[in-house]
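Before relying on records like the one below, remember that each one covers exactly one chain. Contacts with other chains, cofactors or solvent are not represented anywhere in the record.
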Amino acid sequence: MSYLSTHFPSLILKSSLSLRKSSNFDALNSGFTNLELIALQKAWSTIEPRLRQLSTEILTDLFSEHYEIMDKIRDDDGKLCNFEVINHIYWLLLLYGTIIKHNLTPMKTRKVVEPLTVQMGKYAMDLNSINIQLDCIKKHLLAKLAFALSPTTVAAFDRLNKNIIKHIFFKIKYYAK
């Protein structure tokens, strides 16, 4: 053993931690580049004050084009759950905000997405339905940011949608077993 390894074992530990495999590193990494994260946070600071208004616009647009999604949000008696219909898009926007503001790692994102997955299961929404909703949200967010839109922002929102869908897909697959 060398003098360094005997007297300074933390140096060896640090060097071995820096050689992590990519799969371990991915669990600790948010998946966004620094530039994408800055673009998302800047975009979110512009959008956040108008979340309620934006959610109403998205709700109207989404459910007028895709009535079948709204039709799934019913209780056991077959009645439309108005509270959930009105707030569903708002909750999705808050999910976006939580992931963006806190730069969540995939492990933490999975925990944040869990209530959404439970809600989807409650209303029998499939992956296609949630994908349509997230695409509609992204379309509206990018339209609101049209004056300050960059390719980095578009790529970051694409990656954010893919991360959310990935976690939902794995959860749906898990519950299907």
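The chain has one domain: 22-176.
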